[in-house]
Amino acid sequence: MEQSVERVGGEERGERTPLGRVITSSVVGNIIEQFDFAIYGSMAALVFGPLFFPEFSQLAGTLAALATFAVGFVARPLGSIFFGHYGDRIGRKSMLVLCLLIAGSATFLMGVLPTYAAIGIWAPVLLVTLRFVQGFSFGGEYAGAVLMVAEYAPPERRGFFSGFVPAGSPVGLMLANGTVLLVALMPREEFLAWGWRLPFLLSIVLVAIGLYIRLKIYETPAFRRVRETGTEARMPIVDVLRRSPGRVLLAGGISFGFAAIFYITIIFLLSYGTSQLGISGNVLLIGTIIGAVFQIATILGFNALSDRVGRRPVIIGGALVSAAFAFPFFWLLQTGVPALVWLAITVMMVSSGAIYGPLAVLLAELFGTRLRYSGASIGYQLGATVGGGFSPLIAASILAWSGGGPWPVALYLVVVGLVAAACTYLLTETVRADMLEDVPAASYE
């Protein structure tokens, strides 16, 4: 059937972007998100205490720096409401471009931010402000990136193709930790003076690449059909919370479990390993890079498996393995042997990847087209806020309460893994879901 060439919203009706370009656009955005968040988390654990909170004790300074890390996650649900609303009203593409512009600007400005020694209390105030802006913008990034791929992908391989988006997270983590590792090789005085700024400044290169690619893609056929038929939701967030509150909360529970496991592994571990176990920061960063390599490959494998057996079995399996490995994780870390430390990090990252990968496509399949951006965003970010933003701080706090003993943190990992498994079990299977069932047929299809 011939496609009309009438233009709608600056695009030709029926025009499609090649799937490979859509995937690249979405993956680049997630790489940038993880790169920015991992750099901030690493610097919060390694240097932000003395640079921005020098009046505090070492422990208090670390807790304060990790608290600023949490601020970015607090802002995410607000961003998910904003970008979810306009993503369902205006379109996925325009919101993803805006997300990248705001996040890129905030991250770059962190790299030129004066420290406490230069401007006093305004330094941590500005740091927290930029962190909030960064988190707000990323509140709409992940779900929007996943939706772009899921709404373009063929149903029978939707999980596999959508898996490239979460697989971008370990790529960003590798780039971030590799960059931090390189600048950390500088003399300590130079690293504290200006070396820590370099990763933030270099992020602008990734942002420019991401914007170039995103500006060249078309809106998804699913949303164009919503726009063509005039069936956009007037208040998407209100509608999704009224119609599907259970799905939003259960999706948030899965996201909470994954984010807690992941960010304790890559953020809390840096401060715990260096300050409590005497492990070199470079050893921990190398371990995270190794774990990220394995996570990339296994996320794609887990997502391909979810196309065959369903999303729920894969996510539940990953959550239960993460919970079962919580205590062995700390036993291996306490040996201080680099190879065993790397093994511990890798196993935890692979098992959490079994949650993270299929969760991406599950989020897209849980909600109808008209409410998909809002539902997926708020569901994911509610859980990520508590699990990702506060878990490193919670872990550091309960570690201090226990006098340095890691067993309460291990128990916390068990609990969050079981929460993710239980929430997944309570959801219905979504594999092969019809992602257009709530939208009337459009004239151009």
Automatic annotation (TrEMBL):
Membrane-topology annotation of the record: Multi-pass membrane protein
Gene Ontology molecular functions: symporter activity
InterPro entries per the UniProt record, alphabetical: MFS, MFS_dom, MFS_trans_sf
TM spans (from-to): 35-53, 59-83, 95-113, 119-139, 160-184, 196-215, 248-271, 283-302, 314-333, 339-366, 378-401, 407-427
Chief location bin: membrane
Boundaries of every Major facilitator superfamily (MFS) profile domain copy: 22-432
GO cellular component: plasma membrane
SUPFAM superfamilies for this protein: MFS general substrate transporter (SSF103473)
Superkingdom, natural source: Bacteria
Keywords: Cell membrane, Membrane, Symport, Transmembrane, Transmembrane helix, Transport
Compartmental location: Cell membrane
PANTHER family with a match to the protein in the record: SHIKIMATE TRANSPORTER
Family classification: Belongs to the major facilitator superfamily. Metabolite:H+ Symporter (MHS) family (TC 2.A.1.6) family.
Protein's UniProt name: Putative proline/betaine transporter
